[in-house]
Amino acid sequence: MEDEDPIPLSALQHHLFCPRQCALIHVERQWAENASTAEGRVLHERVDQPGRSYRDRVRTVRSLPLRCRRLNLIGVADVVEFQAPDHRPYPVEFKRGRPKAHRADEVQLCAQALCLEEMFGQPVMEGALFYGEKRRRMAVAFDTELRTLTERVAADVHTMIDQGRTPPPVHEPSRCRQCSLIDLCQPRRLAAPPSVADWLRRHLRD
């Protein structure tokens, strides 16, 4: 995969949430913002100020560039902590809202861990998700199941982008209401398009 253009880590989160959303953003280059994405952007603007600090034997690096050549991924970690004595990387990703039923946020964080393992030559066994609504960290273990899922999603995203295909919409009200691209996607209308035969019959009848 090294000869291909790297894909952003966020694409994995988008794909696991909704493959069509991922394609609209990363294949068709479309974007729209709603209240949720605006809140997330403001949260990251507060966090994503590059810099380093050292406190209680923990070195904290903000906005650390990431790269995994094996999976051809690229991105930026919100925060990576290096704790003495072994200085093993510990990624922390900031999210608005609360923990979700799906594993999209965990996959994005695990992808950061895979990047850090390749960059620093150390196993990264755990990280954390910080949710703005809960105001606390949720520890995430990078076990075999999560690593396998992350690598599979990365491969699926590469295939989607290489083929340049956008999947058809699947209307799921609870999920689609959260998506800022709902007006561009039009899942309700396109998932069950009107019958051309019915349209012709109506017009011929008139």
UniProtKB/TrEMBL annotation:
- Sum up the protein's function in the record's words: CRISPR (clustered regularly interspaced short palindromic repeat) is an adaptive immune system that provides protection against mobile genetic elements (viruses, transposable elements and conjugative plasmids). CRISPR clusters contain sequences complementary to antecedent mobile elements and target invading nucleic acids. CRISPR clusters are transcribed and processed into CRISPR RNA (crRNA).
Keyword Manganese included in the entry's annotation: yes
How is the cofactor bound, as the UniProt entry phrases it? Mg(2+) or Mn(2+) required for ssDNA cleavage activity.
Superkingdom field: Bacteria
What name does the UniProt record give this protein? CRISPR-associated exonuclease Cas4
Q: Which residues form the DUF83 domain?
A: 10-186
List the cofactors.
[4Fe-4S] cluster; Mg(2+); Mn(2+); iron-sulfur cluster
Any keyword Manganese?
Answer: yes
The protein's matches in Gene3D superfamilies, at most eight in alphabetical order, are given as:
3.90.320.10
